[in-house]
């Protein structure tokens, strides 16, 4: 788990933690407010604090779906609000989950899914079956080399023996402008 710290002055500027009670991801919400107010993040590649696991930890009361929903809203507010269209990199489970979680306005901005899986690419499209629209939205699936940036990348890093990272690097894209990770 990443640990971060800031000055007391900045803490009060951001507005303290949301003490909304059990199930509120107060650290995540504070972090998002930190970013929204212009805060920066610097990585320190060494252990600064050791957490001890215990079954009564408050973090166990925060549902995965709650965190997912906050992450999606943050992505929509901070990134997708300024894009007219984008490609979701991953036509699998995570990419489709992201698509279904987007607001209707942002779902309409999805130009395509891209992937490397020939089976998904050969199918050619993803049909959003849960949609109430008629006809149901069909989003094209293409190979990553044929896709158009910007990308929201729903692929976990370091899981493909470097293959994903190599593929991404071949496109000569700039993180934060041409793509954002959402994994």
UniProtKB/TrEMBL annotation:
It comes from the Eukaryota. GO terms for molecular function: glycosyltransferase activity. This is UDP-GlcNAc:betaGal beta-1,3-N-acetylglucosaminyltransferase like 1. The lineage of its organism: Eukaryota, Metazoa, Chordata, Craniata, Vertebrata.
């Amino acid at each position: 788990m990443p640990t971060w710290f800031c000055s007391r002055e900045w803490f009060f500027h951001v507005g303290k933690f949301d003490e909304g009670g059990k199930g509120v991801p107060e650290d995540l919400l504070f972090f998002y407010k930190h970013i929204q107010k212009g805060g920066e993040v610097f990585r320190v590649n060494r252990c600064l604090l050791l957490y001890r696991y215990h079954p009564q930890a408050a973090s166990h009361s925060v549902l995965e779906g709650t965190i997912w929903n906050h992450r999606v809203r943050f992505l929509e507010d901070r990134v997708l609000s300024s894009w007219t269209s984008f490609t979701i990199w991953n036509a699998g489970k995570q990419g489709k989950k992201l698509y279904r979680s987007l607001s209707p306005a942002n779902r309409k901005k999805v130009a395509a899914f891209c992937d490397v899986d020939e089976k998904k690419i050969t199918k050619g499209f993803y049909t959003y079956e849960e949609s109430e629209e008629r006809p149901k939205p069909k989003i094209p699936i293409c190979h990553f080399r044929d896709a158009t940036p910007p990308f929201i990348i729903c692929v976990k890093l370091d899981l493909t023996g470097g293959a994903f990272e190599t593929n991404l690097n071949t496109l000569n894209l700039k993180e934060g402008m041409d793509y954002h990770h959402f994994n």
